[in-house]
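Hi support team,

I've been running sequence recovery on a batch of backbones for a student project. Most finish fine, but this one hangs at about 90% for roughly twenty minutes before it completes. I'm not sure whether the input is malformed or the queue is just slow. I've pasted the structure tokens below so you can try to reproduce it. Let me know if you need the job ID as well.

Thanks,
M.K.
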């Protein structure tokens, strides 16, 4: 009986390892810059019913990659972020972006961090067209002032993701 369980456990471990390797072999990576153009400056929103004040920012975003063949190069969209005070001088930051390429295919990006974190955690999810089955995750740096030579560009951050489509 013990020998049967050991063989089954060994086989299960082998099968799981194989599946993880196959899944990993499809993982691709991309990195680049996100350039933001402010639509609305950070503003306080009306207080919630229990008296908490949130801050909200709305920006346009465009992604640029060194790899001009990347499916993410040149996509543009809109991002909205919310800052939620935590009471100890820190704050939760949550945001959402909807991005589209030149063909009109879209995908979604969710990001989160705290004010004290050095980077954001990023999750990407498919939308339409070539991005329908897109899944991925990664990081982006905190936004810093942009020096792109374009007056409307307010800030930029670097990003890096692992994904599959």
């Amino acid at each position: 009986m013990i020998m049967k369980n050991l063989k089954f456990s060994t086989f299960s471990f082998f099968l799981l390892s194989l599946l993880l390797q196959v899944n990993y072999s499809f993982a691709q990576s991309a990195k680049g810059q996100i350039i933001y153009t402010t639509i609305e400056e950070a503003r306080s929103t009306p207080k919630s019913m229990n008296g908490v004040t949130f801050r909200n920012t709305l920006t346009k975003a465009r992604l640029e990659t060194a790899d001009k063949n990347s499916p993410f190069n040149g996509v543009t969209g809109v991002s909205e972020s919310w800052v939620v005070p935590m009471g100890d001088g820190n704050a939760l930051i949550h945001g959402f972006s909807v991005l589209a390429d030149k063909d009109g295919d879209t995908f979604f990006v969710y990001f989160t961090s705290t004010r004290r974190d050095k980077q954001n955690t990023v999750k990407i999810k498919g939308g339409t067209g070539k991005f329908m089955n897109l899944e991925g995750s990664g990081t982006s740096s905190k936004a810093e002032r942009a020096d792109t030579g374009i007056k409307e560009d307010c800030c930029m951050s670097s990003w890096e993701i692992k994904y599959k489509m």
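--
Follow-up from support: It reproduced on our side and the slowdown came from queue contention, not your input. The first strand starts at residue 28 and ends at 44. No action needed from you.
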